[in-house]
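Record filed below.
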Amino acid sequence: MIEVERRTRETEVKAALQLVGGEVDVETGIPFLNHLVETLAKYAGIGLKLAAKQLKRVDDHHVAEDTALTLGEALRRALSERGAVKRFGYAIVPMDDSLALAAVDAGGRPYAVFEATFTRSEIGGLALENVKHFIESLAYSAGFTIHVKLLHGFNNHHKAEAVFKALGLALRQALQAEEEAMSLKGEVKWR
């Protein structure tokens, strides 16, 4: 079990993560963010207890960002302890009208590409522009390369959820234990 805490003047986030299985319980104060992070953890096959508090009420940006940074840090630390993993994962997920593709390289090289558009500004207290920001923050904090592309869809809830399901399934593949590092260098460093 990896425990990470992040505290700023705006937020306080605490996370406990286990790489294989376990309970998922997320409370950020933002209902749709809770739903997306719970979806990500469930489909990734990780146990996650995460609580975020907004200390200074501004908007949802800092909670979404700091939740992603804390989750990414927990993943990075867990991989540092685990050692070799499959490293690469990908998934294409349909959700009714929506179809999302995600690919992950859990190889210690942070980068993010996000291609999706939304036609609403927010759902359940989460500004949908923060879906992209969450994934970028997660990638940089975890040290992962993450590519996400929404192939099509019209329902904004389905589009966002399909993205998080696809990312979760890609992470599930990438984080599986492996006997040796998937690198010609012989090792993968997570900073």
User: Anything to note?
Assistant: DSSP finds four helices and ten strands in the chain. The mean pLDDT is 92. The chain has one domain: 2-174. The helical segments are 31-44, 61-82, 129-142, 156-174.
